[in-house]
Amino acid sequence: MELAALDRLGVILGCAVPTEWPPEDMRDVLAMFEATLRNRPAEVGWWAWYWIAGSPSGPVLVGSGGFKGPPDATGMVEVGYGILTRFRRQGFATEAVDMLAAHALAQPGVRRVEAECRPDNLGSLGVLPGRGSGR
Question: How far, in Å, CA of 57 to CA of 31, rounded?
C-alpha cells in the first residue's frame, strides 16, 4: 500500500500518513520488502515496522525501521530506519531503534544487533550508540 494507496495505508494503521511518505531514504527498498515478504512470509517481523506518534491532530506516521532480514548464522541482525525530515531530531528514531534492538535480542537465535551509517550522517550518529559501531 505504501507504493500504491497511502490513503488505505492510513486507514489500516489508524493514523494520518503525510503526503511526503515514505521517507526519501526508504523509497528504493519498498519493492524489495514487498517481494521478499511475498516469497518468504515467515520473515514477517524481520523487515519493516511503522513508527506512529501522537500529535495534537491525532496519530501520525513519522518513520519506519526494521531489520535487513532475520538473524544470520552468527545470530546478528542489522537494523535500518528512515524518518520523515520534519520529524527528525525529536527522539523518535532513538526510541524506535532502542525498541527494535530490545525486540530482536529477545528473539531466539539473536545474539547481536548492528547498524551502520556514514560518518557524515550526524543524525544517525546521535541515534546509534558507539558512533554506529553496533549494539
Answer: 31
User: What's the confidence (pLDDT) of residue 126?
Assistant: 67
Q: How open is the CA angle 39-10-17, to the nearest 5 degrees?
A: 105
Which amino acid would we find at residue 108?
P
- Beta strands, E only, the chain: 48-53, 60-67, 76-83, 112-114
Profile the chain (135 residues) by mean pLDDT over runs of 10 residues: 77 92 77 83 86 93 91 94 90 90 93 83 68 40
Please return the burial class of 128, using the count of CB atoms within 10 Å of its CB with bins 0-12, 13-18 and 19+.
buried
What letter does residue 16 receive in the DSSP assignment? B
What pLDDT shows up at residue 135?
Answer: 39
Cell (9 digits) for 27 = 523509497
Per-residue buried b or exposed e for 6-32, using 16+ beta carbons within 10 Å of the residue's own CB: beebbeeeebbbbeebbbeebeebeee
CATH number of 6-126: 3.40.630.30
At 106, give phi and psi (nearest 5°): -85, -5
pLDDT reported for residue 128: 72
Here the cell at position 25 is: 531514504
